[in-house]
Automatic annotation (TrEMBL):
Residues 3-131, 181-283 form the FAD/NAD(P)-binding domain. It comes from Rhizobium sophoriradicis. Keywords: Flavoprotein, Oxidoreductase. This is Thioredoxin reductase. The lineage of its organism: Bacteria, Pseudomonadati, Pseudomonadota, Alphaproteobacteria, Hyphomicrobiales. GO terms for molecular function: oxidoreductase activity. The keyword Iron-sulfur does not apply. The keyword Oxidoreductase applies.
Amino acid sequence: MSYEVIVIGGNFAGLSAAMQLARARRRVLLVDAGMPRNRFSQAAHGFLGQDGRAPAAIMEEGKRQLSLYPNITLRDGRVVHAQKQDDQFIVGIEGGGEERADRLILATGVRDTLPEIAGLGDRWGRSVLHCPYCHGYEVSGGELGVLANHPHSAHSAVMIPDWGATTFFTQARFEPDEEQLAKLRARGVRIERSPIVELLGDSPKLEAVRLADGRIAPLDAIFVAPKTAMASPIAEQLGCAFDDGMFGPVIRTGENKETSVKGVFAAGDAASSMHSGTLASAAGVLAGVHCHQSLVMQPAG
């Protein structure tokens, strides 16, 4: 069977894109590998109408709603290859043969790489956090930290005091410049230059961190921006162009969410350096709408 659109990825962006196309009565296949980036988090926050719900529950409900549309096919599986052949795209699904479509939407997400510090990975998504807008309220009032992992970490440290007393851990690698120092001091941020070597406490809770000089610093939560990489090779296989994002490469898209490859659209964390469920869902809506319009406006015949 040939579809009009194949959506690769069933998280917030992919589901939102598929919903627009379902309501436009297009034949759509959504393929989901079942490994969403937010699987480590207990709850999504700041998402209007979904605040406090588990990401898995939101996605399950989204799939249930999509399944009510007869023109949508939902399929579990991992897309392992894709190529353009004439005016169609051929998509290979692991253990499940190939499918064809006139358009593709990539909502393939990213893979996080955390600093190699003992106890950090065990707490990811619980007391080791990436976004204060997503999780800051839940840890507010505690002792908070920002772990420097890139040159923009000081900017994050300037924001965090709105949620609690903040310490900026430079890891002896990312020393603030004079302008950053002035902002940090104005915000009451403590600066710790001895690197964190271990996180302490009954995981996934965090009680303190051990520093390289042997001191123990009490801490309730710590924010870190992990480095990111594409979670899927499909965009690269198709020849999509990439931009250097703040934390890793992102798929280049125009305002209409179309990539550098005509007929391929992208949305979500794979195509943006700003990561949140709400933004991913909104980008998915735009990708779905513009993908539909590209089908409508294609040359006759």
